[in-house]
Amino acid sequence: MFRKQILENAIRIVCQDRRDKYGQIEDNFGLIADLWSSYLGASVTAVDVAMMMGMLKMARIKTGKYTQDNFVDLAGYAACGAECTPEALQEKERRVADVPEPIVEPMRSPKKKKSGRKKTVDTAKIRALHNAGWSAAKIADELGCSNAAVYENLRQMRAENEESEETEKEESET
């Protein structure tokens, strides 16, 4: 594999395949960091997770019994680590601050409160913050809603996007 192919494969895997399966990298690496921190009894960050996963790939490469995918994954972990740095996360937050004030739409929460009232969730803001790279937990904290409400909203967004893509595909075939 040539370096351009390795980087292109890393881009495809990190920016599409893995994101679609596991969600935003800072959410996934943040969860891993929390689990590792608890297990180790020491603080581990999302950046640490990326670097340690990179070291795992380096150890596999060092054995001499590696695959080219180890190099692709190593490049991917480096990019993910860079995206999880405080500076990168601040840049994402700055971009979100430039988003116009969204329209508030009511949304059903998966769990009803005992009062029976539905919580109003700002779906446009969830979408904007998610697109800016915020984690679901951070969005929930910012909007004062549950993680489940954020995940449900994001699930609905994906379903709407898939439906729209199918419609566009059908229209282009006719």
TrEMBL record:
SUPFAM superfamilies, A to Z: Homeodomain-like (SSF46689)
Domain DUF6378: 5-84
UniProt keyword list: Coiled coil
Family matches, as InterPro entries: DUF6378, Homeodomain-like_sf, Resolvase_HTH_dom
Location of the Resolvase HTH domain: 116-151
Start-end of Basic residues biased regions: 109-118
Region (Disordered): 91-122
An annotated Gene Ontology molecular function: DNA strand exchange activity
Annotated coiled-coil segments of the chain: 147-174
Protein name, UniProt field: Resolvase HTH domain-containing protein
